[in-house]
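Section 4.2 – Deliverable D4.2 (structural model, holo form)

The reporting period included a commitment to supply a predicted holo structure for the target in complex with flavin mononucleotide. Inputs used:
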Amino acid sequence: MRREITISADACKRCGRCARVCPSAVFTQEKGEKPVVRKTKNCIQCGHCVDVCEAFAIQHSDFPSKHIHRVQKELIPSPESLMELMKSRRSNRTITPKTIPSEALSDIIESAYVAPTAENSRKVSVTVLRGKDIQEVEDATMKFFLRLASVLMSPILRPLTRLFLRDLYNEAAELYRFERKWREGKRPCTCNGTILVAFSTPKGYDFGWQDCNLAYQNASLMAEAHGVSQVYMGLVQTACKFMGRKKTVRLLHLPKNHKLYALMSLGIPDFYYPNYSDKPKNPHQNEISTSTFDTSL
Ligand SMILES: Cc1cc2nc3c(=O)[nH]c(=O)nc-3n(C[C@H](O)[C@H](O)[C@H](O)COP(=O)(O)O)c2cc1C
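Output (structure tokens):
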């Protein structure tokens, strides 16, 4: 469908905000005049023009009027409530087999899809896995790490691993603990999540990592707001990296030609944490605050 953008002369207040906010110079405006649509083909469908217009004067074929909403300011969390959510969120691994309510899951997915993407390219795909698909991810991850350990911890390589791959060597004990749980029928690598959510973009897209992890963060805060546990699946992602892209696509049922950039385990926790503790200090924290808040700059 051909894109059409028009400005209603009657409704337009000539404030020129559409021309100011458009990142692709679709509009031009002579001082005090009604803005003019010049380069429709430049439009990246970001929707800034329709969202900034107090008078709803812009008709944009990609954003029919029923898709434009007045911001409900009273629903925006205050800085205090947002900070409380961010400080109190935890990777709560006490996940139970209870079903995640469907409204919570659809909010989590929607929040991922509304995250910003580079050039508004909207290439992120959110794939939801359940049941035996999660078990397959768990098994593939566990088997990958056990194979890796059987090589690195073999009698010949063990002394070298201890010397040169100290972190991996130390993590071997943790791995064998995971193996015991796995053999008991638990899913330690995927934290017993009842849903796995994979974030991917087409391979070769330059901002896959950034877009997927922004989507992840939206989804994780939404999960938290619904009282749903979420844990970042770094271990599974490491295994997937070694398995290769095509095997990962099959394992996680990603769209063909996609690449995985983030993976989340979700579930209803057994209990919630009543407290939150201050995070250990980040050594860069002071540097950042000094330069950010230096009013002499
Ligand atoms: C990139 C990344 C990878 C992670 N991978 C795992 C993982 O594989 N398994 C797990 O249980 N937790 C994983 N986590 C969760 C961290 O261990 C957790 O965020 C950290 O311990 C701080 O705890 P908090 O999230 O409760 O604040 C990961 C977190 C991040 C950011």
